[in-house]
Amino acid sequence: MALPSTMKALVCAEPGQPMELQTVPTPLPTHGSVVIKVLAASVDPALRHILSGTFFTFPKNLVPGSRAIGRIAAVGPDTTSLAEGQLVTIEPFIRARDDPDVQILWGTFDGPTSASKKFMADNWSVASYAEYCRAPLENCYALNENVLCRELGYSYEDLLSLSKQIVAYGGFRGINLQAGETVIVSPATGMFSGAAVQVAVAMGARVIAYSRNTDGIPQLPGVVTVVNTGDAEKDTAALKQFGPVDAYLDISPAQAANSNHFRSAIMAVRPYGRVSLMGVIPRDIPVSYAHVAWNNLTIRGQYMYERQDMRSLIKLAETGKLPLGVDVTGRFTLEEHEKAVDVSREAATFVHSIPPADGRL
Q1: DSSP label at 146?
Q2: Burial class (CB within 10 angstroms; exposed 0-12, middle 13-18, buried 19+) of 245
Q3: pTM score, whole prediction
């Protein structure tokens, strides 16, 4: 399809500045990339904090946004498996082809090194809060539109759930979670932790959802709840009441840095059990050295996920076993981006939105 010469996009001139709706050149496909017409994008409840520059850094004149569903609009000369018109999900964890240690989060964070910052500024500074975007071939995954949208009845917004669920799925795959095992998920009511509960159940695991507030925990078969009381020993006993615990996935936000739940959950894991740490805690956590050593526990740090994890998750969704779209809370135009962020922040979850050719987001 012929690409328009210009498009509408939300631009953040520099960290700390608000997004502004602008008319900018439409990106063109290059070797190793495709151009995508954005059909649905997610609004992160922490977007204002992200764009403040106090935690994440990013280049000037950034078009934010990361998680998106779209349709291939133009392909590069070396594209072999994707074609114009195909429905795809774009995942934001981009790695340099010649050095996978150079990593960025598309539309959000240019990484900690000078190489990663240059990589994003020179190549990937236009993300999904626009009518079109350019993305690396390896970050675009074809979706079976007939199965997901027609047979299972999912909308484009529903499919955005995959972009949250993949984070937890990568953590579970990293510790080799198996069907029939029991896993603690803590916390269990946030954007990513709530998705972790859904993913673990779809993988055939039994879930102990351990959280301060149990009201927002997904109500699914195979899920039991334990309230985080702040009393480490009491909570450990409560977690153990359901029998041997095989694994623990932690996906805590920075605000949980002073919580005792890390210790409670780790102390509840059986000998030879596994722990995955995926959160953003900025300080050390209390862990019993003796308990870990004497019980042969494996503690693994996990940053995001691998490419094969994304392919596997899509296959799981196509079986109908993985629920999608349970938290779609709104649709907004590009002009309504401030309202979209407000709604997303109040709901403490992603707001999903659609940007067709008239500039809607």
Answers
A1: I
A2: buried
A3: 0.89
